[in-house]
Amino acid sequence: MSFTPAERFKNIRKSVIRRLYESAPPGSINMGLGEPDFETPEVVRRAAIRAIEEEKNGYTSNAGIAALRESIARYHNEGLAAPLTADSVCVTNGSAEALFAVVMTLAGPGDEMLLPDPGYLAYPALAAIAGVEVSRYRLPAARGFAFDRDSFRASLTDKTKLVFVLSPSNPTGRVIEPGDLRFIARCLADTNAYAVSDEIYRELYFDRRPASIAEFYDRTIIISGLSKMMSMTGWRLGWAVGPEDVIRQVTVMHQYISTCASAISQKAALAAFTNEGRDATAAMRDELRHRRDRMAQALSRDLGLPYVAGEGAFYVMLDVSRFGPSEEVALALLDERVITVPGSAFGSEGEGYLRLSFSIDPALIEEGIRRIAAWVRGSGSAG
Ligand SMILES: Cc1ncc(COP(=O)(O)O)c(C=O)c1O
User: Fold this and answer.
1) How far is the CA of 335 from the centre of ligand 1 (A)?
2) What is the pLDDT of residue 197?
3) Model confidence over 351-367: pLDDT tens digits?
4) Where are the domains of the chain?
5) Of the candidates 200, 379, 359, which has an alpha carbon nearest to the alpha carbon of residue 284?
6) What letter does residue 84 receive in the DSSP assignment?
7) Which of 30, 52, 213, 348 is packed most tightly, with the most Cβ within 10 A?
8) CB-ligand 1 contact for 380 (6 Å cutoff)
9) Was domain 14-40+277-378 assigned CATH 3.90.1150.10?
10) CATH top-level class for 42-271?
11) Closest atom, ligand 1, to C-alpha of 97
12) pLDDT band, residue 382 (cuts 50/70/90)
């Protein structure tokens, strides 16, 4: 008899990013994966080595080491009316686990989750697993994926339980301005909804540090971690921060998912909040700004297609709508040995675009754009 997964798994498939990555030919330039390519800063690596060599690394408390939770609370406190404490923080195995634990703790059948379109592709999968309905607020491609107040207001219903705010955005890199965050807070003021603020890219900005919805709305759960800001994707260190009564329950959920985050990663993570750690993030930010400029130059010089570049993260959205569906274009580009992500993976507003990452070596950015240009000149121009 063939294997039938549980009902909740029925419509869930491996992400298109992984599928494209696995079918890419050798020598492909990967403009698809969503992770920084920097070495993890030395100050963090040294702390990890010290923890391994000198300490016993048993289970930590479920919510995480107290000193780390205090550092995380202090880090998020800026601009908040009511200060966060260590009890406002649950440290998790990457922000992916924090997202999972928060959704599973707060929402279930009969509830709705309001997601940005386009937005991070894990969100709808989480909703499906939790049995939560999804509605979307549009960040219209026609307006450069900017926040759209009318679409947001129109998507709220009396079943809305969780409202996802993603700034800077994956896939667009766009930031939601403080005035729009205030607008979201006003819309939610008379509801029972919690804002889930995914701030995983917050430190990777090019101009001003993006604001947080937590500055304007108390019922906010911030999701963040060190994957992007410290180039620590494989260390699996993230967290959920929010009202203590919510975090208490999220911590129980987290206990049954994974007990605690890696003790070694937690001890190393303390170093991220030192001056040396902060300086390392600043250096990555500067390098990413430089690469964004290299990407923009290459796009204008070699390709000449419209694109949207955001104020943060490390992505641009390239308009390939004249060549057919974005998934077909991404598949065709594999023959040119360049991996991209079709915008359709992030929601219907992403259709017609490819997400390109510039978190790769600048020489590869230029070669990747040249390969896309070669495809456009050849088979692409027929489409
Ligand atoms: C928007 C967003 N949120 C969360 C995550 C998960 O990151 P991690 O689990 O490594 O902290 C990612 C990873 O790509 C992301 O893009």
Assistant:
1) 28
2) 98
3) 999 999 999 999 999 99
4) 14-40+277-378, 42-271
5) 359
6) P
7) 213
8) no
9) yes
10) alpha beta
11) 9
12) low
